[in-house]
Amino acid sequence: MITKRTFVLGVAASAFLPGLPARAHTPTLDPKFLPQNVRMSGYAPGTIIIDPRNHFLYLQQGGGQARRYGVGVGKQGFEWRGSERITRKAEWPSWRPTDNMIRRNPARYAKYANGVPGGPGNPLGSRALYLYKGNRDTMYRIHGTNQPQSIGQSVSNGCLRMINAHVAHLYERVPLGARIREQVSDPLMLALTGTPLINDVEDFDA
Q1: What digits encode the pLDDT tens for the residues 194-203?
Q2: Catalytic option among 55, 143, 166, 169
């Protein structure tokens, strides 16, 4: 059982991008990135709100509360911005790097041009929620990860990464058509929203 004070991520060597070396250590997740209820209002229930500066994803609930999760976000120049909707969801999704990713870094990504099947070694992890603007796939996703040490960092090509157990938790609570929006962090906003409630950190089985 994972406690409220620590969340040790058991990561096997095979749980990294196929063909790339895995890290030898087992990272520990900062407890602030565990799923927890916080005080938050101002959005319709069911809305997903992204705070990229602080690496949080919120799922607005009723009664002035939201569910908060830690995420990894896009590196500088690749950050997600805007307002979209979740139009597709998938369990253990397959993955293919985008054409732009292959073009920017063929040495890293060209070998995956035919795609990687879903499974523990897949970079999208256990679940994926696909962001669309109208009928257009933006190519951004909220997804799990085989690199849990990236949670709380800005290192992705734009997608929003979550711990596999956390994205599975979110996946069950977000219907198709849900809106996703960016929250711009500022001192006043942070003083009014995202305040943790006492003793409400989620426990997860290892």
Answers
A1: 554 433 445 4
A2: 143
